Amino acid sequence: MNGIMLVLLALLALALAAVVYVALRNRVMFLIGLRNIPRRRSQTTLIVLGLMLSTLIISAAFTTGDTLFRSVTAEAYDVLGHVDETVLLGEGLLGGDSHEGTGIFVRREPVPQSLVADLEGRLEGNDEVDGLMPVLAEPVAVVNPRSRQSEPLAVVVGVDASRLDAFPDIVDRKHRAVDVAALADDELLVNESLADELSAEPGDTLAVYSQNRLFTFRVAGIVQDRLLTGAMPFRRLGMVTRIEALQESFGREGEADFIAVSNRGGVRDGLSLSDSVTAELSALLGDESYTVEPIKADVVEAAEEMSSFMVTIFMLLGLFSIVAGILLIFMIFVMLAAERKSEMGISRALGMKRWHLVQMFLAEGMGYNLVAAMVGVALGVLVSLAMTRIMAIIFAQFDLAISFHVTWRSLIISYSLGVVLTFVTVAFSSWRVSSLNIVRAIRDLPEPRVARASRRALYLGCVGVLVGLLMSWAGLSSDQQFPFALGMTLVILGLIPILRYRGVKERPVFTSMGLALLLVWVLGAGGYLEPLTGEMEFGIEMFFLSGLVMVLATTFVLVYNADILLRLLERLGGGTRRFLPAVRTAVAYPLASKLRTGMTIAMISLIVFALVMQSTMNTNFDQVFLSDEARGGWDVVVLENPGNPLVDLRQALDGAPGVDTARFEAVGRVEPVLSRPITVRQGPDEEFASYPVRGLDREFLKENRIELQARASGFEDDRAVWEAMAGDPSLAVIDAFSLAGFGFGPRDADFVLEGIDQDQRIFDPIALEIRDDLTRRTEKVTLAGIISTGTSATFRGLYAGQETIRRVSGLERPDFTIYFVRLESGEDAKATAQAIEAELLTQGAQAESIKDEMEEQQRLSNGFFWLLQGFMGLGLLVGTAAVGVIAFRTVVERRKQIGMLRAIGYQRSMVGLSFLLESSFVALLGVLSGVGLGILLAFLLLNGEDSQAMGIDTFVLPWWQILLIMAFAYGSSLLMSVIPSRRAASLTIAEALRYE
After folding, report:
1. Contact, 1 vs 328, CB < 8 A?
2. Strands 636-639 vs 731-734: parallel, antiparallel or unpaired
3. Which residues pair with 239 in a beta bridge?
4. Which stretch of DSSP H or E encloses residue 346?
């Protein structure tokens, strides 16, 4: 990011240097340009608002990234305190699979407490390490009898009180150190989060359940959430006491679960030494099977990845708004040039060169630009602040406090990028509008329509065709859709000036090329070009390119055939003789200004397209992930507490008055491996990579109803795969998210399955190898099926028979068991889950209706989706501003026309209605174009083979969302037209006719 900032600052300096050059070299042109800014304050305000929108989008994106990075890293620093690394056996504290909600709190291979003294001896003379701490961590269930509150999964931690000098993290709410050594054997300290959950106070006696035994401890005090008080990032519930007391109570003398390492320096400063200390500890431990985890550095790195990903997503989705903002800037200067056409003609007649006009407009544009970028950055920060409030609600359930934060670096990048983008657009616009015929400009005559394009345009068209062909060839050679599609687009666009040079008229050229562009993109999105091009890879960038090109193509067709639509409007208006003159006047002007009309339609259409497309895709994916099939035939999921394992769910519930196990049709067991570093690879030459691995018992295999989107050859149907797995534990299935090319965000695992396409239904059996990285023990499995996409959200990971997974992990009993229950028809899953949890309160089991859990996850997903929708909706301000700019400028340009209309009998209401209908027509075309294209592209993608393989077999339109988008876009555009329409209607005849 620092490199990006320096590059943008250099570009900003070049832009400012260009303006300084104009001011020093030609001060008269510079002052003439600046003089125009305060002449019409309302117009200047509107221009500044239009110019600042791109900067607003950029600023909001970068500031949101700052907020996420600061919030996640603050969580890491706050919770981890002085702990920089951990030494442990097996999977790191941040490793494993936390999908089930257990976090890292599973029983793991014990570390001998004596290792601390051994490492201290080896580290003697190393001044980078402040201290080492043996830590015992037991997952427990806890009940506060006084408040009648309970928590099924918390962690009680034991620390060595004699080593706390290097770990001053156990402090009370007033940041005062607490004397852990003074705690009695039956006393402990409760951290703030758990105290809030239990309504615990000093003096309370807590019932703690571990290994199905009851222990009682008295609360000696409340301390802050830290790793050494049982907290972890995103799950903070814990307690702490002396390690000796905990070892004696739980029968773990001489054992620890991990060793905490504190680097030299404070909570943040120690991070800089993490790489060095990690390398040193790894070298000291040699070939021993210990894992040295740079826990703080890993969390900070994850925060950087998350913030970068969010900035990328917001910037990609904001590109529609940025492009619309660039179009608006160009249109503003075209309209300013049209207003000053006579003035520019006179200036040229008096001896000014074209370059002088460019300098004048450049000075004026940069005057607007420098102020607009400041306004954009400030408003972007305010938008980010509002988004932060929404994100705080979304992330609250993960115990992550989102607090607004902005850095000077982001502000500088946003301002510089906004100014540079606008400068380039202003410079091009200034050069473009400075080209004029002096005589026609002085007399304010329209430019004549040319029969053919210039030779320069011909050359540009030829270059476009050549570059397009090269890009298309490169895309075909590399199987990349983006260069291929962009190349085909350039070829078609390059043909336009070539055909125009040959004398072909504008309407057939732009209409045919627009339809050709649309056809190419429709065929490509629908997969109809694959027989010619083969399968090609693509990413989210195609979403932006497809919207841009399809909107451009549709705008060509609409603008050059708008007279047909306008005639229909005229006939509709002609049914009422009173409004006929206003309709005819409204019809004429958009046709006479194709450039303005086309750019305004494109601006509105781009944003509406993006919003409708995203809404439609999200709604249809909701149908998949919330379908009954996504539950795999199960109704309730029960998660045992790793510290209080259930031998058998039915047995644990026998005799329970609140639960009738006779109403259970089936109970299946899933056994994730969380405490061991299990990795997977596809071929003998591939590297082992992390992926969630789970074992299934025979009842789960026989009774589940999980659908497969692909299965290995030799299996007649999905049921045959599951029955074969019940008899052969070496067979396996995996979720669809493992497939190469699935999604575009950061993956939560490293393993990617190659050789199976999303739309493939039958594949050759694939051999996979599973390894325990700790013992290097391996097992081979044969992949027999790919779980359907909708069900993969519930059943994530690689699944095989429990015998195979236990052999590779070497575990005599599972780390943790998840029970899936299918109820008899008509049973209430939510009520049953609540009853199970109540009956197993002292064992800490957590039960949930799978349907309710899916809906909750989808609500979180939709909350994030609505956040993105709101961010993208900012782009509608661009279209609204465009309509407002045109409307205001139209009143100024046509004041004489208004006076003549009034003189020949037009009433005030007819003049106002004419202007309102004109703006309404342009806005409506943009809205309908965007809606139509968004629905079309979504339909093509959702009916493709890839989408059908994911289980999308219907097409659902979110009508209420679409209507809301249409109403907002059209209503806000119309609202911007009301004031200028009323101003036009209020002009007196004499005032309008005298206007110069």
Report:
1. no
2. unpaired
3. 156, 190
4. helix 341-349
- Helix or strand or coil: residue 209? strand
CB 329 within 8 A of CB 51: yes
Cβ neighbours around 592 below 10 Å, total = 9
Tokens at residue 915, please?
């202007």
Strand runs labelled E in 795-947: 798-801, 818-823, 846-849
Query: What is the pairing mode between strands 708-712 and 762-763?
Result: parallel
Separation CA 666–CA 704 (nearest Å): 9
Instruction: Report which of 855, 858, 838, 832 is spatially closest to residue 636, judged by C-alpha positions.
Output: 832
Question: Whose structure tokens read 């301390």?
Answer: 223
User: pLDDT tens, 539-583?
Assistant: 777 888 888 899 999 988 888 887 776 666 666 555 555 556 666
Give, in order, the Cα–Cα distances in Å from 469 to each of 484, 485, 536, 561. 9, 10, 17, 29
Which two three-digit tokens encode residue 709? 């989107």
Q: How far is CA 789 from CA 10, 205, 454, 800, 870, in A?
A: 47, 48, 54, 18, 27
Q: What is the pLDDT of residue 310?
A: 75
**Alpha carbon separation from 594 to 7, 331, 510, 600 (Å, rounded):** 38, 12, 12, 10
Answer whether 688's CB lies under 8 Å from 770's CB: no
pLDDT digits (tens, 9 = 90+) for 312-370: 777 777 777 777 777 777 777 777 776 677 777 777 777 777 777 778 878 878 888 88
Token pair in block for residue 460: 């540009």
- Could you give the C-alpha distances from 670 to 92, 534, 673, 857, in angstroms and in order? 22, 40, 10, 21
Q: Tell me the C-alpha to C-alpha distance, in Å, between residue 896 and each of 112, 441, 911, 984.
A: 93, 17, 13, 11
> pTM for this one?
0.78
